[in-house]
């Protein structure tokens, strides 16, 4: 099969579009012919050796994929060749075929494969962040940084379903327009961020901040929190891991809360399954709708990852084998 191969940790342009052995349907493994593979920010870090985990090389990146079941192992029940499914696979998604244990395979019926990929990680991350980690309540104010990206769009839509007032933060007028189209009550830039958050909350500050950016934006938000607020740490797309003056959390009585979706899926699989069921229900009712910016050939993975890491992407990008 054709795949994107990371032969060693290196810059993105060193990724290889080449041949790998087809995965085998042994034990509880489900082999899927991939229709779409989602591109995620951590994928770009992983292949450069900059992520929390460092897999043995060579490996195929890609943590989510959707398609048609090609074969199943002897221990698989309830899934058969021809079924349309999706998987959270940790590795292996950037390929024509991928194998995953049945426990990480979900039926998708006639759902669009690219939409499903967005639901798995981007919407899955934002849902877990707002529901379990922030415990967002109706009537609270949610500030979303990096709001035009895949997880940001997800946070806006989910925040509105949960009854929050949503302030989206994005770098350009075009991106801010996309945020309002996806339900944000207000869309602002990064300039004068603290003062603008205070102005839009009548001086009270943000109840919840969804921060996938870090850097100076984190610094501004750390000074614009409401009493009892929750500042969610999602990632550091700015490239700068900020330092927190912890006296602010004492004086303003807010919490800083880490969100590591991968750990959540491993340690709380039933809660994760319940979350996915809720997300799929919202999708089927039309309450959430991923923004798919583009569908690109698998061979273009390096260029697509560069756009995501450079914060040039709007919504979700997927690879099509």
Helix/strand layout:
Layout: E1 2-5, E2 16-19, E3 29-38, H1 41-47, E4 64-72, E5 84-88, E6 97-101, E7 105-107, H2 113-133, E8 141-144, H3 150-161, E9 165-169, H4 173-181, E10 186-188, H5 193-200, E11 206-211, H6 215-222, E12 225-233, H7 247-252, E13 255-258, H8 261-267, H9 269-284, E14 292-297, H10 301-309, E15 316-320
Parallel strand pairs: 8-9, 8-11, 9-10, 11-12, 12-13, 14-15
Antiparallel strand pairs: 1-2, 3-4, 3-6, 3-15, 4-5, 5-7
Helix pairs in contact: 1-10, 2-3, 2-9, 8-9
Quick structural overview:
The protein is 32% helix and 26% strand. The protein has helices spanning 41-47, 113-133, 150-161, 173-181, 193-200, 215-222, 247-252, 261-267, 269-284, 301-309; strands at residues 2-5, 16-19, 29-38, 64-72, 84-88, 97-101, 105-107, 141-144, 165-169, 186-188, 206-211, 225-233, 255-258, 292-297, 316-320.
Jot down its keywords.
321 residues; alpha/beta; Quinone Oxidoreductase, Chain A, domain 1; 2 domains
Tell me about this structure.
- The protein is an alpha/beta fold.
- It folds into two domains: 2-110 and 291-320, Alpha-Beta Complex (Quinone Oxidoreductase, Chain A, domain 1), CATH 3.90.180; 125-262, Rossmann fold (3-Layer(aba) Sandwich), CATH 3.40.50.720.
- The chain is built from ten helices and 15 strands.
- The chain has helices at residues 41-47, 113-133, 150-161, 173-181, 193-200, 215-222, 247-252, 261-267, 269-284, 301-309; strands spanning 2-5, 16-19, 29-38, 64-72, 84-88, 97-101, 105-107, 141-144, 165-169, 186-188, 206-211, 225-233, 255-258, 292-297, 316-320.
- The strands form three sheets. Strands 3, 4, 5, 6, 7, 14 and 15 form a seven-stranded mixed beta sheet that branches. It has a six-stranded parallel beta sheet with strand order 10-9-8-11-12-13, with helices on both faces.
- Helix 6 (215-222) links the parallel strand 11 (206-211) and strand 12 (225-233).
- Helix 1 (41-47) packs across helix 10 (301-309), helix 2 crosses helix 9 and helix 8 (261-267) crosses helix 9.
- The mean pLDDT is 96.
């Amino acid at each position: 099969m054709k795949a994107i191969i990371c032969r060693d940790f290196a810059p993105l342009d060193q990724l290889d579009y080449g041949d790998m052995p087809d995965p085998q349907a042994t034990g509880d493994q489900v082999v899927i012919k991939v229709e779409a593979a989602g591109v995620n920010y951590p994928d770009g870090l992983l292949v450069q050796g900059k992520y929390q985990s460092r897999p043995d090389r060579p490996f195929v990146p890609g943590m989510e994929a959707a398609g048609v079941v090609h074969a199943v192992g002897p221990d698989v029940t309830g899934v058969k060749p021809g079924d349309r499914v999706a998987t959270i696979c940790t590795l292996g998604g950037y390929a024509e075929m991928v194998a995953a244990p049945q426990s990480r395979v979900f039926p998708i019926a006639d759902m669009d494969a690219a939409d499903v990929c967005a639901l798995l990680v981007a919407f899955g991350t934002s849902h877990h962040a707002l529901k379990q980690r922030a415990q967002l309540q109706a009537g609270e104010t949610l500030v979303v940084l990096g709001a035009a990206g895949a997880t940001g769009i997800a946070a806006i839509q989910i925040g509105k379903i949960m009854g929050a007032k949503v302030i989206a933060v994005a770098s350009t007028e075009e991106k801010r327009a996309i945020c309002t189209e996806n339900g944000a009550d207000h869309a602002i830039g990064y300039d004068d961020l603290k003062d603008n958050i205070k102005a839009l909350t009548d001086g009270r500050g943000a109840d919840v901040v969804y921060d996938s950016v870090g850097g100076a934006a984190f610094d501004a938000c750390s000074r614009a929190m409401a009493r009892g607020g929750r500042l969610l740490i999602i990632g550091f797309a700015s490239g700068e891991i900020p330092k927190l003056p912890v006296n602010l959390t004492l004086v303003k009585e807010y919490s800083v809360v880490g969100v590591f979706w991968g750990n959540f899926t491993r340690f709380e699989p039933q809660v994760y399954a319940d979350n996915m069921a809720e997300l799929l229900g919202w999708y089927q009712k039309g309450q959430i709708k991923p923004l798919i910016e583009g569908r690109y050939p698998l061979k273009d993975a390096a260029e697509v990852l560069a756009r995501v890491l450079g914060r040039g992407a709007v919504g979700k990008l997927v690879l099509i084998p």
